[in-house]
Amino acid sequence: MKKSAAKTFGILTSGGDCPGLNAAIRGVAKAAFGIYGMKIMGINNGYKGLIEGDVKILNPEDVSGILTKGGTILGTSREKPFKVSKGDDASTSSIKVDAIKDTYKRFGLDCIVVLGGNGTHNTAALLKNEGINVIGLPKTIDNDLYGTDITFGFHSAVDIATEAIDRLHSTAHSHNRVMVVEVMGHNAGWLALYAGVAGGGDVIVIPEIPYDIDSITRHLKKRAKGGKPFSIVVVAEGAISVEEAKMSKKEIKQKRASDNSPTAGYRIAKEIETSTGMDVRVSVLGYQQRGGAPSPYDRVIATQFGTAAAELLHLGDYGKMVAKENNSIIARPLEEIAGKLKLVPSDHTLIRDARFVGTCFGNE
Amino acid sequence: MKKSAAKTFGILTSGGDCPGLNAAIRGVAKAAFGIYGMKIMGINNGYKGLIEGDVKILNPEDVSGILTKGGTILGTSREKPFKVSKGDDASTSSIKVDAIKDTYKRFGLDCIVVLGGNGTHNTAALLKNEGINVIGLPKTIDNDLYGTDITFGFHSAVDIATEAIDRLHSTAHSHNRVMVVEVMGHNAGWLALYAGVAGGGDVIVIPEIPYDIDSITRHLKKRAKGGKPFSIVVVAEGAISVEEAKMSKKEIKQKRASDNSPTAGYRIAKEIETSTGMDVRVSVLGYQQRGGAPSPYDRVIATQFGTAAAELLHLGDYGKMVAKENNSIIARPLEEIAGKLKLVPSDHTLIRDARFVGTCFGNE
Amino acid sequence: MKKSAAKTFGILTSGGDCPGLNAAIRGVAKAAFGIYGMKIMGINNGYKGLIEGDVKILNPEDVSGILTKGGTILGTSREKPFKVSKGDDASTSSIKVDAIKDTYKRFGLDCIVVLGGNGTHNTAALLKNEGINVIGLPKTIDNDLYGTDITFGFHSAVDIATEAIDRLHSTAHSHNRVMVVEVMGHNAGWLALYAGVAGGGDVIVIPEIPYDIDSITRHLKKRAKGGKPFSIVVVAEGAISVEEAKMSKKEIKQKRASDNSPTAGYRIAKEIETSTGMDVRVSVLGYQQRGGAPSPYDRVIATQFGTAAAELLHLGDYGKMVAKENNSIIARPLEEIAGKLKLVPSDHTLIRDARFVGTCFGNE
Amino acid sequence: MKKSAAKTFGILTSGGDCPGLNAAIRGVAKAAFGIYGMKIMGINNGYKGLIEGDVKILNPEDVSGILTKGGTILGTSREKPFKVSKGDDASTSSIKVDAIKDTYKRFGLDCIVVLGGNGTHNTAALLKNEGINVIGLPKTIDNDLYGTDITFGFHSAVDIATEAIDRLHSTAHSHNRVMVVEVMGHNAGWLALYAGVAGGGDVIVIPEIPYDIDSITRHLKKRAKGGKPFSIVVVAEGAISVEEAKMSKKEIKQKRASDNSPTAGYRIAKEIETSTGMDVRVSVLGYQQRGGAPSPYDRVIATQFGTAAAELLHLGDYGKMVAKENNSIIARPLEEIAGKLKLVPSDHTLIRDARFVGTCFGNE
C-alpha cells in the first residue's frame, strides 16, 4: 500500500449506538478540514450506505456543535457485507463487496474511516484484504475491543449504570431487599465490573467468571447475618453459571427456555429467591446505557482518536485502527485486531481490589 | 376528638420507596423538636413496626443531613394491618389492630404521622375509626393520591424518566428505530404523561385512555412518511387496549398470558412491529424511578408537608392528610381521601397541549 | 381590537438567556403549524431584529429537536425600543418604534409573540398602545414576573443552584467552614429561597428581607456551639442590609464602593468573618444558572405556555400574556402586568416553613 | 526500615476538599478490616489532629455507605507541621513534630496513611525522615501530583467544570457573546485543558503556556468573521501573560493590583473586551469544583488506591505513595515525589489534539 496523503475520504459509523460517535466524527473532520484541507464524504447508515452509495458531502458546519450530542449524525446499521446469513445465496456477499468497491471508486475515496466495535473492525480488515484503504476508530460501550486499552462510549455507559445503581441502593436499603441490576455485556464484563465497583455492588457477576449460585447466596446470607439484609447484585447480561459453562450452546438454550426467565438478571434473581427466601427485585438497564450525551472523558478520548485518524489519513498510513495504549494514542494493523475479543482476565487487578472491599464474584 | 397539642408522636413510612421520604421526616422532626419541643418515636418498617412495637426514640442528630438522601431512615414495608388475605384467618387483622393499639398506648403516643400513598392512607383512615390519632403525608411517584394536587416523589420520578427518554432519543434517531419506554404507573398515567411531554414522546399511552393500536401505528407511519422513521413511545405499565377495556380482569389475564409479553411495553412493541414491520426496541425503566436523592422540587414540597404536619400536631388537629391545593398547603379529613384514586382526566389540559405539539395518545 | 385569527405572526425572544425558550418556541410553532396552519416569521435577536427587519421564515424542521436545547434558536438581545438612554436624542425611540411598525407591516404580521421577562413585557404593553398585536410568554429564571405563578426557566435555575449548594455542603463540613453561595436575583429572592430550602441552607438572604448581620452571626455561632461549625449561607445578589435599606441608592453605592467587595456574597462573607473569626469562603454561581437544557418541569410548562399562545393567536385574542394561575393556564391583559414586579412576600409560607426547619433569614 | 505488617495504623486526610476521599478511606479500611484484621485509628482534621492527638477508633460501620459521599468523614485542614511561617518562632515546628511522634507512639501506630496532594506528601516525606512510617494516597482535583498519572478527584472536577461549560455555551450562542470560564489550577492547567477540550472551548489558557492577548483576540475575531461571534474561553486561575512571564513575582503583583481585576478570568475578559469591543462575561466556577459525590471513575481509582495502601501496610512496605502508572497501580518512594509538581508539558498530545480541532492556546 503506497503511503500518500488522502485527499478525499469517506466516513461511516457502524453497529450499535454509542456515546462519543459525533465527538469522534467532529475530531476527524475538524482536523481534516482545518489542518489538512481534505474533502469528506459522509456515508449514511454504516456499511449499508457504503453498499447503496448513500453518500453526501460533509461541510464544516455539519460538524459544528456536535461534540456533546448523543447518537451519530451519519446514522448507523448492523449491516455486515461479508456475512452470508442462513438461506442467503452465497453470491449476496460478493455483490455487496462489489457495490462497496463501486461506491469507493465512484466518489473518488482514498480511504474510508469506520467508527465501530468488533464486527465493524472485522469487516474493515476484510475490506483491507480487498484492497480498500480503511482506518478504524474503536467505539463500544462494552470496552471489549481487542488492541486498545479503552474505547469511547465505555465510561459514559459506566456513568449511566452507576447512577442507576446509586438509585437502587436507597430502595434496597429501605425495603431490606436484594436488588439485581442487569447491565449490558454479552461477552465481556467490563461494564458490570466498573459500574459494580463504582456503585458499591455487593455481588458482581460477569461472563468471564461463571457463577456458583451457592457462592452468591452464601455471601448475601452472611451480609444479612451481619446486619445488612439489603444487597446490590450487578449482573452482566452474558452471565453464565458454572453448570451452564459445562454445557453446549444448544443445551444452555434449552435449559434457559424451560426456566421462563427472560434474561440473566431475572434468572439469577429467581435462584437467589428460591435459595434464600429473600425479597428480590430486578432492574434491567437496557438501551439507556447506549444513548445520550457522551461523558467528558469520552469526549476527550473520542476527540483524540478522531484527530489521530486525520493524521493517519494525512500520512497515508492506512489499514490500521487507532488505539489507546497506556497513556499514548497509537495505531495497530487491522489484522492484529480482527476476530479477537478483549475479555476481563480473571486475575485483573480491579477484581482483586473489589474482593478486598468485600465484593463477591460468585466463585469464592 | 379533643384538640390538644401532641407531646409525643410516632412517625412511620409505608409502601414503596419514594424520593423525599427523608426530607419529609426531617421537616416534621426539625419543626417538632425546634419549634414545639415534642418527643418523637421512630417506628421501623411501616405498619409492620407499629404492630411489632419496633420503635426507637428519634433524636435531632438522627434527622440531620438527611434532606438530600434517598430512601427512608425508618425503613418501609407493604404491611396492611386491616387486610385479610386469602387463606388468612379472619382474626389476623383484629390481632394486628390490637397490637397497634398496644404499641400506641405503650409508647405514650398522642398521634402517629404516616408517610405513604393510597394504601397507607386507607389504613390511616381505618386507624382513625379505631380511635387512633393519625396525620398523613402524601408520597408516591405515581401522583395518584386523591385530595392533593401533588405528592412528593412525583417530580423526581419525572426527572429520572425524562433523562432516560432523552438518552433513548439519540438511539432511536441513529438507528431509525421506534423505542418503547415503559414507565411506572399501574392505575394512573401522570408519570407517563409528564415525562412523555418533557421528553418529547411521539406517542404516550396511559391507563386512563385505552389505546387502539391502529391509531398508534397510523401515527408512526405518518411520521416515517414525513421523514422521521424514528419515534419514542412512552407507555405506562398499566396501559390497556380498547379491546381489553371491554373484557373482565380474568379475560385480560388469559389474553396476556397467551401472548408471552412480560409487560405492557413489550406487548405494545410487538403489536407495532407486527403491524408496521418497523424496528422496535423496549426499555423498561423499573425501580430506578423510585430511588435516589429527591429533586429540589420534591425537597421543597416534602419540607413543606413535613412542617405542616408538625403544626397540625401542635394544634391537635388529627385525622387529616396534609395536601397541596393550588398554591397553598392545606389539610383534608382522611375519610375524604380513603378509597379514592386521582386519575388523569381525559380532558386534562396537558393532554390537549401534548396533542397540539403532535403527540398521539392512541385514541385519535 | 378586532378578534380575527392570525394567519402570519412573528416570534422573538428578548432579555437574558433562560432555559425553556426553545421549548416554548417549539410549543407555539408546532401548534401553529400543525393545528392551525399558520405562517411564522422568526425575528432574530429580540426587539433589535424587529427594528432592523432581521426576519426569516420559520419552517417545521427549524423547531424539530429543540425541546431539550438550551438557549434560543432566534437569538436574543436587551434592546428596549422605548427607552431613551442618557445622552440619546429623544427621537431615537420614535425612530425605533416606526421601524418596528414598518417591519410589522412589511412582513404582513398579524401579531408578534414575545418571550421574555419584565422588560420584555413592559415593551410589549407599549407596543400594544401603538396598535401592534402582541402576545407575551413569561420567561425568567428569577420568577419575578407579575401576573403569573411561575415562569419557565425558574425551576431549571433552582435545580442548578441546588446542585451547586449540595456540592458546597461537603466542603463546608470537611473544613468546618462557612460557605457563602451567591445566586442570581437582583430584586426578587425566589431563586435564593427555593434553592436555599432545597439545598438545606442554614441562612438565606433575599432582597425582600434586609439582613441584620448580627442576626446571621448569632445563628452561625449557635450552630457552632451546638456542634455544627459548618454552615451554608445562600445570598441573592440583590441582598441588602438593614442599614442600607434606610439609605438612598447613591449612599448605598458610595458605601459599597469603599468596602471593596465585588458582590453581595463577598460583602456578607467579610462581615461574617470580621464578626465571628470563622473561616468563610464565597462561591458566586453566575451565568451557569441561565444556560443549558431546561429541566423536565420547565419543558412541560414552556410547552403549555407555547400552545396556549397558539390558541390565543387562533382566537385573535391579542394584547395578553399567557400565565399560570393555580393549576390553570390563563391569559392576562399586558397592562395589568407592565411595570410591576412579583416579589417574595415576607409572610410567604415557604419562609415560615424554612424557619421551622431552622433556617435564619437575617431578621430574627 | 524493617518490613513487618502493620497491626494498627492511623489515617488522615489533609489539604483541600476533594471528591473521592471517603471512597479511598473506605478502600483502605475495608481491606484492612476484612482481609488483614488490622486496627484503624481515624485522625481528625489532617495533620492538625495528629499534632493534637485528636484520634478515634474507626469501626467497620464507620466506613459503610461512604463510597459515594463527598467530603471526608475525618475532616481536613491545611496544617503543615514542618512549615515555619513568618513571625513564628523557629521552635514551633519542632514542637509540632514532637507532638506528632508522641501521638504516633501513644496510640501504638505502626504507620500513618495520609490522603492528600503536594503539600501533604511533602510533609509525609519529612515525617519519613523523622522515622515515622507513612503511606501516601494521591488526591487532588488539580492532577498536579508528581509520580502518578492520575489523582482521584481530578475527573470529578473535570465533569463538574465541563457541565458548567456546556451550560455557558447556550448563553454565549444566544447573546453572541464571549464567555470566559475560570476553573481551578494555580500551577497546573490539567483541569482547564481536559474540561476545555471536553467542553469544546475555543480558547484554553493554562499556566504552563503564557498567553499573548493578541493571539487570543485574533482567534476570536477570526471566529466572528467566520460567522461565529460567540466563543468560550477557558482560563485556569493561574493563567499568566507573556509579559508577566518575564516579570518577578513582586512586579506581577503590583501590575495586577493596579488593574483592579479580582482574578485571571476577569483580567483576560477585560483585555478581550478592550481589544475587540466584543460583549464578554465571566463565570468563576469556584468551590463547587471541589465538593460533592465522586464520579464513578474516581470511586474506582480511589478504591484501587485504598486497597493498594492496605496491601502495603500488610507488607510493611512503608515510605511510599501509591500511584497509577499506565494501567498499573504501583508505589513510589516519597522522596522521589516530594517537592515536585506535574505540570502540563507544552508538547502534550492533548494540546496538539485540541489545536487540531481549532482550539487556541494563546501562543499561536
Can you give keywords for this protein?
364 residues, alpha/beta, Rossmann fold, 2 domains, seven-stranded mixed beta sheet, four-stranded parallel beta sheet, 11 strands, 42% helix, 16% strand
User: CATH topology of the largest domain in chain A, which one?
Assistant: Rossmann fold
The largest inter-chain interface, given as chain pair and residues per side, is: B-C, 46 and 46 residues
The shape of chain A, in one word, is: elongated
Q: Which class do the helix and strand fractions of chain A yield?
A: alpha/beta
Describe it for me?
4 copies of one chain form a homotetramer. Chain A is of the alpha/beta class. The first copy, chain A, folds into 2 domains: 8-152 and 294-325, 3-Layer(aba) Sandwich (Rossmann fold); 155-290 and 346-356, Phosphofructokinase domain (Rossmann fold). Helix content of chain A is 42%, strand content 16%. Chain A is built from 13 helices and 11 strands. Chain A has helices spanning 21-34, 47-52, 91-106, 118-129, 154-175, 190-198, 213-225, 242-245, 249-259, 264-276, 296-315, 334-337, 349-356, and strands at residues 8-13, 39-43, 55-58, 111-116, 134-138, 178-183, 203-205, 231-236, 280-284, 320-325, 328-333. In chain A, the strands form 2 sheets. A 7-stranded mixed beta sheet of chain A has the order 3-2-1-4-5-10-11, sandwiched between helices. In chain A, strands 7-8-6-9 form a 4-stranded parallel beta sheet, with helices on both faces. The radius of gyration of chain A is 22 Å and the shape is elongated. The relative contact order of chain A is 0.18. Chains in contact: A-B, A-D, B-C, C-D.
